[in-house]
Please model this.
Amino acid sequence: MTICNGRGRRPVEGFTLVEVLVVTAVLVIMSAVAMPQLGRALDNYRLGMAVREVERELQAARVSAVTANRTVRVRFDCPVAGQFRRVEVLAEPGVPDARDNLLSRCNPAAFPYPAADLDPLTRPNLDGPLHYLPTGVTVGGVAGFEFHPDGTAWSNAAGGLGTWEAIAPAGTAVTVAKAGRTRSVLVNGMGRVFVQP
Model:
């Protein structure tokens, strides 16, 4: 493009309106094609993040049970869907336990993390923080796992507070789901925790 400025014609550098509109239209079309892929990638990322968080908490519960010589549970949907927590089994008269009063043990205000003191004579000392799953991520298959001081694991497949069962050697899986995709975390009877593809 050239313009006249009184001394003659000279070229002016820049883009025409048509060129800018064509480039903008191409970018909009490319963005529209990429958005669904970006949404799926974000869902996969959140699912993977949730699976790793569940797996790490199960591993931490087993290690706590073995090192402290105490039974430790991981409860899902504790106290509501999308949350889970590691709690020490107290089994003492007059003290709320996951077996007796699950909602109380899942309440971080009543049972804070970290514990008010680390005195081994006052319990619980092994409760973990309340974990929140990303929006839209659900956990199913079992209501929780219990790890004993010898490292073995039990599951609560039925969901009742007192229905803990020994896990078969093949294992029991907790399913983590997001937007139609699922991944599983398997716990076998010996307490080993595996993420399944």
In short: The mean pLDDT is 82. The chain has one domain: 17-196. The first strand starts at residue 2 and ends at 4. The first helix runs from residue 17 to 68.
